[in-house]
Here is the input.
Amino acid sequence: MSLISTSIDPSRFRDALGHYASGITVITSLVDATPIGFTCQSFYSVSVNPPLVSFSVMASSGSYPAIRRAGRFAVNILAADQAHISRQFARRGQDKWQGVDWQASPLGNPIIAGSLHWLDCQIHAEHVAGDHLIVIGEVLAMDQQKPASAQPLLYFRGQYRDIAEAVDA
Here is the structure.
């Protein structure tokens, strides 16, 4: 069986993928006493045993090389009221940490105040995938910062969204 190669328009491809709702995270690390971080919506669980998670980052990222050198990172799962944090950490070349309260995780990674949950990870593997890198981390510590009833920050079709209340069927 052969695969048919077709030319996919990048803007149409991006639009198609925008129809998949995702949560928003900020990946953080502390390198030479300097906090580093970037917004990431391409995050998912990989394995329960051992506990592994993954995120994808552009190969041209300015932040990820320092995280790679540190060998560790935290995943801050953003709450619905943290769209401003998502926007702030999505920018390039500015002080992303201005006005952001954080504390150090057990591994020394920045945990952003008000996040729903955080996962403290050690880099387990990295794979090149087109113009991105797939990073797999082993979770060594984690904690919930907000009540289980708190809502996550979601992104769908280019906008932040709220979860609709569940309707009994």
Q: What stands out?
A: The chain has three helices and twelve strands.
